[in-house]
Write a structure and sequence with these properties.
357 residues, mainly beta, 4-stranded antiparallel sheet, 28 strands, 10% helix
């Protein structure tokens, strides 16, 4: 019971830590990790023209084409879910066509498979939910067409805004909510959402903004991304369309960019750290913006975290870092601040002293 009590206290301290530390747990040269799933699988570019997946169990592995070849530059992985299933698109040679593009799905057990029935059209997959929804676009006869693959029902085209000729779907959650962009040759680019019933609606920017881009969507319908205004800034958008702006803490006139968001509304991204140098950040409503470089855990000193690209629910952060002049793709683990980590030990010691009196 004492052990159970101690573990419960430690878990509570980790969850409530307002100023966590960040520990580098993996690093690879010539690699850029872009996304991480809640199951701990990260994906990204692996150098030498190959895209890769990583987890603690399997290390770093190449993602091959569906034909079993590994032609440099042929695979572009875009997203991964909590089951370690990744999606993207591959370029391959087809007789009579110099390059042909197909959406794919990959996992460590089943390998790479093409998805969808797009007829003669080239296709791309961008996002996958933990429930298995997949979204992307294909190049139709007139313009790009947004699509979704739903578990149990398969692939379908998504609705277009009246008057717009095309679009793409970029992110999706397990309810079937998707977000993306509507395009037209004569009308402005417009951010849109498809509700779980398939109906399309316009996502309005915050008052005074010219536009904005979405970089991630979580299970609660919250989004993060980049405003397009006089100063581009990171934001958290709630399901009702309210925006929380995350400013650069060192220079409000310099940019910030929210790139990854988990289901706890923990955000990661990058900001202008001076002289246009990127620096990775972590943000919550409780902590505000923390510069990852300033909160590295013991044993991870000396790293410069340039990009923070995504964060899982259990605190894995992926991005790009530099150490001793060499650039790496990095995986970091969020750990509690020392004062909170030691609090359960102090409480347990105090309880023991009281019992011996």
């Amino acid at each position: 019971m004492r052990v159970a009590l101690f573990l419960a206290c430690l878990a509570g301290a980790t969850a409530s830590s307002a100023n966590p530390l960040f520990k580098v747990v993996a690093a690879y040269e010539q690699t850029q990790f872009n996304r991480v799933g809640n199951g701990g699988t990260a994906v990204g570019f692996g150098g030498g023209g190959f895209d890769v997946a990583w987890s603690r169990d399997m290390g770093r592995v190449r993602i091959p084409t569906s034909e079993g070849t590994t032609v440099p530059g042929s695979v572009k992985v875009q997203g991964v879910n909590g089951s370690g299933v990744a999606v993207g698109y591959q370029d391959w040679d087809v007789p009579g066509k110099p390059t042909y593009r197909n959406a794919f799905v990959w996992d460590a057990v089943n390998g790479t498979r093409l998805i969808g029935d797009f007829g003669p059209y080239q296709s791309e997959a961008y996002g996958i939910s933990d429930a298995g929804h997949i979204v992307g676009r294909y190049y139709g006869a007139v313009s790009a067409v947004p699509w979704m693959w739903r578990p149990g029902t398969g692939q379908e085209d998504l609705e277009l805004l009246p008057g717009w000729t095309g679009g793409d779907a970029e992110f999706v959650n397990s309810s079937g909510l998707a977000v993306g962009t509507a395009y037209s040759a004569t009308l402005p680019r417009t951010r849109v959402a498809w509700d779980p019933d398939g109906k399309i609606r316009v996502l309005a920017p915050a008052p005074g903004w010219r536009d904005f881009s979405v970089a991630d969507l979580n299970e609660g319908g919250y989004m993060t991304g980049l405003s397009e205004d006089t100063v581009s800034q990171a934001f958290l958008r709630d399901p009702d369309g309210n925006y929380t702006v995350i400013q650069n803490p060192f220079n409000p006139a310099a940019w910030t960019w929210g790139v990854g968001l988990n289901n706890k509304n923990e955000m990661v991204g990058r900001f202008n750290g001076g002289n246009q140098q990127n620096r990775g950040f972590y943000w919550t409503a409780a902590s505000g913006l923390l510069v990852i470089d300033h909160h590295l855990a013991p044993g991870s000193e000396g790293w410069e975290i340039r990009f923070a690209q995504d964060i899982s629910d259990d605190g894995l952060i992926v991005g790009t870092g530099r150490k001793d002049g060499i650039v790496y793709g990095v995986v970091l683990q969020v750990v509690p601040e020392p004062s909170l980590a030691l609090a359960p030990l102090a409480a347990l010691a105090l309880a023991r002293r009281r019992r011996t009196r």
